Queue: 2 jobs
Job 1
Amino acid sequence: MPSAPVWLQHPSSLRHDTVPHPEQPARISAIERELSARGWLGFERVTSPAVDREVLDAVHPAAYVESIERACLNGGGFLDADTVVSEGSFDAALHAAGGAVRMVDLLLGGDVPSAFSAHRPPGHHALPARAMGFCLFNNIAVAARYALDARGLERVMIVDWDVHHGNGTNDIFRDTSEVLFVSIHQSPLYPGTGGASDAGSGEGLGFTVNLPVRPGADDAVFCSLVDHVVVPLARSFEPQLMLVSAGYDAHRDDPLAACELTEDGFAAMTRSIRGVSDSLEIPVGCVLEGGYALDALAKSVAATLEALREPVPAPAAPAGDGVSPLVSQARERLGQWWPALA
Ligand SMILES: [Zn+2]
């Protein structure tokens, strides 16, 4: 059992052949080149297994999984306007979900405080029976569902800082209070969901938290939402596991969106999330989502790992200076479910 932080990977990520497409194998190569040059930043590398089909079926109906398998075996093609598969994509998708599930096992084993599951295709747009937005299976949702069903957890928190709304994760956990899903994303932008008024439904009302930001949102905006909304939500919810849908397309160099984050912003968000997780004595696992500017992606993942590998003292109550007005709007809205935020 590794005691260092863990990096989960599988070579099948390189055989999900989408070129020409921004979600391309070179994303993984760029990240691994950067990390390799830096000694993997002390992370122990683990090869991901394919996901157990029963575990996958807990989120995705077997008929849908088989339809993806058939599409790939038949040589691939476009599943929707921007989601393409090749012969190798099914195997890649099984390992992308399997990596996230293996990560949960390692994190809950007690010896691994933090981990990063870095595969393609990404997952947070995938609905139970519909591929979309470059995503086939919702890797983080499969992992969270596994943590609840197979590992007996009662509360899992998912923070999604990909610049696009994680509509798949949002909808999969819309009706449950077992998963607190918090997404910071640019609006307007694909896929057009994730308005602030979408707070979940039924027993899950208040357990879906959407924090849309305007184009141009920078480190200060994202970090103030993390420090003043995400962190206090975590303290109130008291999750037993923290998962992050770690997309890097909010970076200022990214071609697919118009936010202005830097590597420092990703590092700061990671420190805050690691900090509150340490104070709750729970592990943190990141799952790679988007990020299409190769150099920015590689450097931002490295910045995340640097922040992820060190224990962080519990964050002090942050000062009110420089707080985005989005914070007070969000806290006012969330106060009805989360009194500590009112
Ligand atoms: Zn994205």
Job 2
Amino acid sequence: MTLIDVPVGLGSRSYRISIGTGLLAEARARIDRLSGARRIAIVTDETVAALHLARLQAGLGDRDSTPVILPPGEATKSFAGLDALVGRLLDLGLTRSDLVIALGGGVVGDLAGFAAAILKRGLPFVQVPTTLLAMVDSSVGGKTGINMPQGKNLVGAFHQPLAVWADLDCLATLPAREMRAGYAEILKYGLIQDAAFFDWCEANAGRLLAGDTAVLAHAIAQSCRAKAAIVAADERETDDIRALLNLGHTFGHALEAETGFTDRLLHGEAVGIGMAQALRFSAARGLAPAADAERLTRHLKAAGLMAWPHEAGIAADAAPRLVAHMRHDKKATADGLPFILVRGIGDAFVAKGVPMGAVERFLEADLSA
Ligand SMILES: NC(=O)c1ccc[n+]([C@@H]2O[C@H](COP(=O)([O-])OP(=O)(O)OC[C@H]3O[C@@H](n4cnc5c(N)ncnc54)[C@H](O)[C@@H]3O)[C@@H](O)[C@H]2O)c1
Ligand SMILES: [Zn+2]
């Protein structure tokens, strides 16, 4: 049952994000409306296949579908993983009128989406996100790609899906830690431009993390609306608007790099700390009230997320290494690194030309706070 439909307005590449329960069971009727594909490849990972693939296949009924099951984890989102996947899709004999369904978290969505973008110069695909993070972030907006030894997401393409189906039933099997990590990205939309939504998050985080369907549907829809509006205004991140989505990410990526992109610190957890740092840095520069940074810190803790780098085991002397990681950020230009800062909760902006020395001094204090 669809609870909420969010349109993504991109001219001829427009599509809908459907958020609800039982969506996998309706797959046949949904595909019939979208595509006359003769063959459907369902790309997924072993974990998700064991939990949710049968429901999707049952939902597709007698439509010809073949699963392609990959090892779970970020390592799959690599050139080797792409090579293997594209080979298997070619072996299935998919043509440009066939269809790829990405069933999984952001790893599967980014990799399968990129394979669909380049296979025979572009096959249509449908995103079926199964993690909270994928439902509110990675499945929306058309960014696809893989990691390189030089850094994450350095190779990829913009390729918009035909549709996104966020089936809330999939979240019932998601580990609590992954739920909290996804929640950090939801909170991000409130911090960027919607103070009322931040208030709502404070009041509803408990029910959301406990899996309340109505609360989840509202939070996911609000997040998708916010991201869709930003993507519609700046599809290819050519001006500053889409960059706002990086709130907490410059600090967060440096923390992820410092922890070696391992399970020690999930991306969403790093973004939670990074957003708290962005607010503390904004306050330290006199741009935002310190009370707003403190309020975010309190809420992150209440939601079971971290707010300080030391909680993730980051050493007190890490500031120079974190700054070095930031200099390698793919958003870095000759003028330095743009930082997403805030004037307060719900009011983020792009700050250019922030001196890296000031960032390092802030980090030194923040790491030993
Ligand atoms: N394209 C974009 O715009 C964009 C935006 C944000 C993040 N990303 C990318 O997304 C990736 C992270 O996505 P993620 O957090 O979804 O990670 P993920 O895909 O690795 O999923 C996390 C783990 O949860 C498991 N899992 C997935 N669904 C499950 C379910 N319903 N029940 C139980 N287990 C389940 C997976 O097998 C995996 O082990 C990163 O590679 C990141 O770069 C992309
Ligand atoms: Zn993120």
